[in-house]
Amino acid sequence: MNVPTIIVASVVLVVFVAIVGRGIYNKLHGKGGCSCGGDCGACGACGSRHPK
Questions:
Q1: CA–CA gap between residue 37 and residue 39 (Å, rounded)
Q2: What is the pLDDT at residue 3?
Q3: pTM metric for this prediction
Q4: Residue-range domain boundaries for the chain
Q5: What whole-number distance in Å separates Cα of residue 12 and Cα of residue 17?
Q6: Which residues contact 43 (CB under 8 A, 6 or more apart)?
Q7: How far apart are CA 32 and CA 26, in angstroms?
Q8: Cα Rg of the chain (Å, integer)
């Protein structure tokens, strides 16, 4: 492999790890893709996403 290929692959890997790491961080801190902002009592759709 040549140097430019290694550099591009490294950049892609760093971006992937950053995205996955941010997703894990958000999940651990109660932030997610739910539009209710974590207030599931006020959101009718969250019952299926956040089962108790």
A1: 6
A2: 95
A3: 0.57
A4: 3-49
A5: 9
A6: 34, 35, 36
A7: 6
A8: 18
